[in-house]
Write a structure and sequence with these properties.
The chain has 127 residues and is α+β, with helices and mostly antiparallel strands. It has one domain: Metalloproteases ("zincins"), catalytic domain (Zincin-like), CATH 3.30.2010. It is built from 5 helices and 4 strands; from the N terminus they run E-H-E-E-H-E-H-H-H. Strands 1-2-4-3 form a 4-stranded mixed β-sheet. Helix 1 crosses helix 4 and helix 4 crosses helix 5. The longest helix is centred in the last third of the chain and has 15 residues.
Length: 127
C-alpha cells in the first residue's frame, strides 16, 4: 500500500493551543502545516517533523516552513495527553530563529522536558 497524506486540521488545532499556552513565541503558526499519513511501514515512529531548508526557501522564493506529520496507525490510537506530548516533542525541534533548521534531541529534547512542558500546558489549559 502506498502512503497517503491528508491535511490534519485536528492536529493543527492542538499545535496552535500548545504554541499559545506554552509561549513558543518563536514559532510562526502560518509556517506550520500538519498532515496525517496512512500506510507507513515505519514500526516505531509516531510523528515526524519536516522543514523547508534554506536552499529550498531560496529556490521557491518563500520563507521557512515546517510540516508535522503524524502516523495515523499509531498516533490516532493514543490518548489526548500522549498526543499532546508527541506534538510538544516535534515542536521542540524548531529552533528559536524559525529558520528552517532543526534542533537535535541531544541535550534539548528529553522525556523530562516534554513531561514538564506538558504539565505546564495542562495547568494553563484548565484556566
Amino acid at each position: 500500500m502506498k502512503i497517503k497524506y491528508y491535511e490534519a486540521l485536528d492536529v493543527k488545532e492542538i499545535v496552535e493551543r500548545i504554541v499559545a499556552e506554552l509561549g513558543f513565541n518563536h514559532i510562526e503558526l502560518k509556517g506550520i502545516h500538519c498532515f496525517r499519513s496512512v500506510g507507513s511501514k515505519s514500526k516505531r515512529t509516531i510523528a515526524r517533523i519536516h522543514s523547508l531548508g534554506k536552499i529550498w526557501q531560496k529556490a521557491l522564493n518563500t520563507g521557512p516552513s515546517y510540516l508535522i506529520e503524524v502516523i495515523s496507525e499509531r498516533y490516532d490510537k493514543m490518548s489526548r495527553d500522549e498526543k499532546e506530548k508527541v506534538l510538544i516533542h516535534e515542536l521542540l525541534h524548531i529552533p528559536q530563529g524559525f529558520s528552517g533548521g532543526f534542533r537535535p534531541h541531544k541535550k534539548y529534547i528529553t522525556r523530562k522536558k516534554i513531561e514538564s512542558l506538558h504539565q505546564k500546558f495542562l495547568s494553563k489549559k484548565k484556566h
